[in-house]
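Risk mitigation, structural track. In case the binding assays with adenosine-5'-triphosphate fail to produce interpretable data, a predicted complex structure has been prepared as a fallback.
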Amino acid sequence: MPTNSGAPIFCKPQDLHLDEITLVRGGVAVFKALSLHLKESRIGLIGDNGAGKSSLFRLICGLDTPQAGRVTLPHGPNTVGMMFQNPDEQIIFPTVEEELALSLHHLKLSRHDAQACVRDWLAARHLAHWAPRAIGSLSQGQRQHVCWLALMIASHSTLLLDEPFSSLDLPGQALLRRDIAQAKEQIIVSTHVLDHVRHFERVIWLDHGTVRLDGLGADVCGAYEADVALRTA
Ligand SMILES: Nc1ncnc2c1ncn2[C@@H]1O[C@H](COP(=O)(O)OP(=O)(O)OP(=O)(O)O)[C@@H](O)[C@H]1O
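Fallback model:
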């Protein structure tokens, strides 16, 4: 049974390699010979709309296959979990406990036992009342939170979070920031709100499918802000 209580234990981060990736979507080349080595525990992904952030995530988790090049995940694709920009693209079950039970499929439990595990896990996080709730009765932000819970209860090595703060209220954003800080998994966050990644050890600025800048969060976020200020002056 996975837990997230107590002090964070950082396992060895994934060592993801993208080598000379070319990806075409809708007839347009999103990436041409893109190479990245992703090994840090916390990585931010920033850039304008259409820069390629979601496309990069889709490549890493195997939803898209590159036309050329290779994505290498040392521990296999099942160790990568993704939180979609739109929770409705991710959630498939009608209740919270059923949705979270899906994340435990690797334990090969009966449906009854998996849902009991989910209820215990939620109770340990003071969220027992969420278990029976119908997904249809949740707000967009609450559904986004369910998607995050579904990732946390699973046993992935790497979590890809595509604009995970976009629908969350201020308390929800603070709680997610705390969860991200404490999580043992490698986490890559795509966001337009730079303060969520400015403190990260690494931020990658994507610009029309290329890496414009790659380095310390504070440096890369500052450079992107300066560029945006110039372009919008
Ligand atoms: N389903 C699709 N079919 C064809 N082209 C797509 C599709 N989704 C995205 N694209 C194209 O791929 C490029 C990269 O889009 P992507 O969604 O990866 O950008 P993004 O950086 O995540 O943008 P945003 O900040 O708006 O979420 C864009 O040129 C976009 O038009």
